[in-house]
Amino acid sequence: MLWQADPETGQAMSEDTIRDQVLSFSVLGEDTTKSLMTWALYHLSAHPEIQRQVQEEIDAITGGDQTRPLSATELSHLQVLDRVLTETLRITLPIPNVARYAASEETLLGKYRVPQYSIIVLLREITHRDPASWPDPERFDPDRWLPERIESVVPGSYAPFGGGIRACIGQGFAHMEALTFLSTLLRAADWRVCTCQRPPRSEEPSPRTTQNKKGCKRNTRRSCALACRGDPEGEAIDGWG
Ligand code: HEM
Q1: Number of domains in the chain
Q2: Which of 18, 74, 83, 241 is spaced 20 to 30 Å from 148 by Cα?
Q3: For the whole model, what pTM was predicted?
């Protein structure tokens, strides 16, 4: 596909264009989505009651099967997880600022003169936590995005994917990726914030894998972030090593 000619112009992309496109997609598409998924997992670990709601929603679809892949239609039914992602992008957004270059002189909002060639930076991390727009803005609250509350969201106060003609083209893809990844991790284990004071992984001895009494694999090096699902003693496990 990369080497094919455009059916209208008959022109193929140059190697430079292909390189630039691949670079944009990997930088803009990988780090951002990774950040979204990491923060979502962190927020869910810090809010076990919300994590449980997400797990119950997934279980209701899969019937408790921890391995069957979810179809695209099933993923679109994960409404709690969807709200978790939306809220994660509000409070811990991967791209906190977006800039625009003024090609010509403009007047914004009828009173702010913007000279030609100025650079305007939109501080999204400020608008996303502005108390004038968000009640209790520092609180992670996915229920802000419930259908009955969504109408009170102030227009323009939320734009993690930018806006206008240069808005992110990967929004749908990133969303699907995050739903797939998180629904897989969350149904296999309970997640919690690590409070141990372990040294960084590089300073630890090699991992040793054991099994806990429920048969879950336990990796002694990475045992602090995962817990066997439903284990009341919260014994930490690593099912991925
Ligand atoms: C959670 C994930 C993501 C976030 C938060 C995000 C956010 C953004 C933001 C804020 C912009 C700038 C928009 C503007 O200037 O108004 C942008 C642009 C862009 N994003 Fe994303 N992005 C994400 C995922 C992705 C993915 C997965 C891809 C590709 C597979 C992608 C491709 C792009 C491209 C190509 C642009 C430049 C668009 C242009 O300049 O016309 N992004 N993204």
Answers
A1: 2
A2: 74
A3: 0.83
140 lies in which domain range?
A: 16-94+129-188
Q: Do 48 and 151 sit in the same domain of this protein? A: yes
Residue 214 sits in the same domain as residue 171: no
Residue 114 lies in a domain: no
Whose Cα sits closest to atom 33 in ligand 1?
A: 168
Tell me, in angstroms, the distance from the centre of ligand 1 to residue 30's CA.
Answer: 10
Ligand 1 atom with the smallest distance to the CA of 162 is: 16
Q: Do 182 and 138 have their domain in common? A: yes
Q: Do the domain assignments include residue 107? A: no
With a 6 Å cutoff on the Cβ, whether 29 touches ligand 1 is: yes
Give me ligand 1 centre to Cα 88, in Å. Answer: 16
Q: What is the SS3 assignment for 141-190?
A: CHHHHCHHHHCCCCCCCCCCCCCHHHCCCCHHHHHHHHHHHHHHHHHHEE
SS3 content of the chain, % helix, strand, coil (to 5): 40, 10, 45
For residues 77 and 28, state if they share a domain: yes
As a whole number of angstroms, the distance between CA 37 and CA 178 comes to 6
In a structure prediction context, what are the per-residue pLDDT tens digits for the chain, which is 241 residues long? 778 888 889 899 999 999 988 888 888 889 999 999 999 999 999 999 999 999 999 999 999 888 888 999 999 999 999 999 999 999 999 999 999 999 999 998 899 999 999 999 999 999 999 999 999 999 999 999 999 999 999 999 999 999 999 999 999 999 999 999 999 999 888 888 766 655 555 555 555 555 555 555 544 444 445 555 655 454 444 433 3
Ligand 1 and 33: CB distance under 6 A: yes
**Atom number of ligand 1 nearest to Cα 99:** 15
